[in-house]
Amino acid sequence: MDKTILSKTFNERLEIQKAIWLDNRWLYLLVGFLLGGLLGATIELLTRNLNSLLVNLVPEAIGMLVTVLIINRIVENNRLKMLRDELYSNLHSRSNDTVLNALQRIRQYKWLEDDYFEKLDLTRANWADAYVGKLNFQRANLYKSNFSQVTNFYKQSHDATVFDFAFMREINLENAHLYKSSFIKTDLIQSNLKGAYFVFSVFKQADLSRATLNETNLTQADLEDVSLHRTSAVNTSFLNANLSGSVATSAIFENCDLRGVDFTWSYLLGATFSGSVLNSANFIGAELTFADTSSANWYQHETPDTFPLMPDGSYWNPEDNLERFTDPKHPEYIATRIAINAIREQMGHSPLPMFD
After folding, report:
1. What is the Cα 213 distance to its own chain's centre?
2. Which is nearest to 284 in space by CA: 341, 334, 237?
3. Strand runs (DSSP E) across the chain, as ranges?
């Protein structure tokens, strides 16, 4: 087709469209106005619905988030509780690594309760090398447990440990370090306390019968009314300890430091003091019948203030015949016995029996 014809046709169409627009411009304006109104109304409606939608969705979203957080916390708390129960259960183990690891993790989580071990059964548990400061084992069952080398010393200070009324028969406390700890009325029969450190500790009315106290440090310990029946103490320090009222029948005190020990009113029937140092010891009112004091070192320096006090209230002296305290066949035994009983009765203690 000729380009001139095409140009003419296009121009004709353009003129026709202009004529239509001019003839109908008010109609187009009305339609535009109506469309604008409808669009505005539509936008306003959408905006209102969006605000309403947001008002409903936001609280629900927050509620869902809180619910998720609470569920996660419950799950985490249950997990921690199961872990805590497992770790505390491991404290009963005979595996030393298991016990020490459990103690370490319990302390890391700060779950350690000082009184948790009260009345607890830890029979044969292996706590060797554990730190036991501030723990309370009152009335616990520690039968045949291994507490060797346990300590209450940490960061240059001591935190006392309590074992009052505990059942600790045949326990192993070898080389334990338990400064100022308490063993009141504790059953320590046949226990091993060899090399242990109990300076300033309290053993009032404890039963240490047939226990091993070799090389143990009991300096200034309170052992009032304890039972030391057939107990072995070799190279042991009892320096300035209180053993008043103790029952140490047939006990062995060999090469012990007994300086300043209070043996008043104690029962030392058949006890042995071979090589032990007894400066300033106090035996007033004590029972020494059948005791072996022949090789005891009654003094280190010959000054009156270091001489021991004997059961009848007299000071020991090198010329004294100690058999009057120990041998019922000695001619002065009865008279000495009467003098001792007079002191005992005066102080409210029952008299010692007479031996034929």
Report:
1. 23
2. 341
3. 153-154, 157-158, 232-234, 252-254
Average pLDDT for 1-23: 52
In the structure, how many helices (H) and strands (E) does the chain have? 5, 4
| Alpha-carbon dihedral 229, 231, 235, 241, rounded to 10 degrees | -40
Q: In this structure, are residues 192 and 171 in contact, taking their beta carbons and an 8 Å threshold?
A: yes
Q: How far is CA 317 from CA 304, 308, 324, 337, in A?
A: 9, 9, 13, 19
Q: Bridge-partner residues for 247, per DSSP?
A: 227, 267
Residues with Cβ within 8 Å of 243's Cβ and at least 6 positions away in sequence, in order, are 223, 224, 226, 228, 261, 262, 263, 266
- The DSSP symbol for 111 reads -
pLDDT tens digits, 284-328 = 999 999 999 989 998 876 555 688 999 999 999 888 889 999 999
- Distance from the Cα of residue 113 to its chain's centroid: 8
